[in-house]
Amino acid sequence: MADREPLLDRFIRYARIDTQSSDTSTTYPSTEKQKDLLRVLVDDLKAAGLEDAAMDEWGYVTGTLPSNVPHRHPAYRNVPTVGLIAHVDTYFGVTGAHVQPQVHRPYDGRDIVLPGDPSQVIRVADEPELAACAGLTIITSDGTTLLGADDKAGVAVILEALWRLKEQPQRLHGTVRVGFTPDEEVGRGTEHFDVAAFAADVAYTIDGSGLGAIEAETFCADTAIVTVTGADVHPGYAKHKMVNAVRVLSALLQALPQHRTPETTEGREAFLHPYTMSGNTSQATCSLLVRAFSEEGLQELETLLRRTADFMEARYPGSRIAIDIKPSYRNMKYKLDEVPHVLEYADEAVRRAGLTPTHPPVRGGTDGSRLSFMGLPTPNIFNGSMNFHGVKEWVPLEWMDNSVDTVVHLLEIWVERSGSA
Ligand SMILES: [Zn+2]
């Protein structure tokens, strides 16, 4: 078994660097401090043997691990280039300044009271997976910040996998391209990502929750903007004249099915989510997120929205309701189904790491869903951490190590399966 201390030290070193992104910034990256970690990663990639490691003008750090397969051997002629990607930024909604990682070793199996704010308790009753972790080494924040395991665990896992390959040269891998990206949390991680220059045939983000999870399904996402136009007149003399846009819009939202909301759905269930509105008597507008796992599912919700709008127009004579649909992203499954082996190899790698692969649907989008539609099939591999985006994040060192193991096996599988092609 590999020594896990270097992985622990590396993760803690990265976690201490503040890389919080900003959802209101218009610069790229959204916060300059993300480059504090990105610069460190250029040096760390070079130390791991990726001599061409560099940061580009946007902050993307890339590097190449040259293949170690005997190229002249006919069995290994066509080993594809595999990309490994992780994001350095942390969730914009919780502070990432002065992170004080806490190492619970060995974890005693009880509720974890976070020492910097004892009102923050990670409870076994709320976290079914935690109960099985007694005896492991668990890392948390001190309760006053997030930990940033999303996705510094993924960053540390990739670096550690590169070191294991360096130390075990008998393990064969093709050309590996590494990419560290900013601004995933604000949905802009791929905004300036140059897929052609990255030059990988497939890639994997190391950014998922849940031990053994391979994520290959995300939402299809649109935004619907509903605009109601009414007719304003003096309210004292409005009988049979006023058409109140605020009232019409409220009635429309009220008529949407209550069992298709974020608050009432899970798994692969779809929803309509009104998330912002404004207006007055003469005009009122509302933006809604439309989310489903298939194009048909999106269509169904959008048709329902239009029918409800038609009904309200008829019920409030004189009102007009316009609906504008803006596409956001699509389920990566549509692209990954064209290359099923990309997922099969990941499953096999998880099994070789001694785990059972699972395929939880992601109720959101990932950088991988955008990359897959940019021509680079990119499912997501677990990084070992749990409870993203809050001060109660936790990550067992052993699970991060399982992720390292999975990545190294995966690269070997790509060599094995590409033989004699
Ligand atoms: Zn993430």
Detailed description of the structure:
- With 421 residues, the chain is α+β, with helices and mostly antiparallel strands.
- It is built from ten helices and 16 strands.
- It has helices at residues 5-15, 34-47, 149-167, 195-198, 245-255, 295-315, 333-336, 340-352, 367-373, 397-417, and strands spanning 54-55, 61-65, 82-87, 102-104, 112-113, 121-122, 138-140, 176-181, 202-208, 214-215, 220-229, 271-279, 283-292, 320-329, 380-382, 394-396.
- Strand 1 (54-55) and strand 2 form a beta hairpin.
- The longest helix is centred in the C-terminal third of the chain and has 21 residues, at 295-315.
- It is globular.
- The mean pLDDT is 95.
Features:
alpha+beta; four-stranded antiparallel sheet; 20% strand; 16 strands; 421 residues; binds zinc ion; seven-stranded mixed sheet
Secondary structure topology:
Layout: H1 5-15, H2 34-47, E1 54-55, E2 61-65, E3 82-87, E4 102-104, E5 112-113, E6 121-122, E7 138-140, H3 149-167, E8 176-181, H4 195-198, E9 202-208, E10 214-215, E11 220-229, H5 245-255, E12 271-279, E13 283-292, H6 295-315, E14 320-329, H7 333-336, H8 340-352, H9 367-373, E15 380-382, E16 394-396, H10 397-417
Parallel strand pairs: 3-8, 3-9, 9-15
Antiparallel strand pairs: 1-2, 2-8, 4-7, 5-6, 7-16, 10-15, 11-13, 11-14, 12-13
Helix pairs in contact: 1-3, 3-10, 5-6, 8-10
The protein binds zinc ion.
The site of zinc ion has 5 residues, from helix 3.
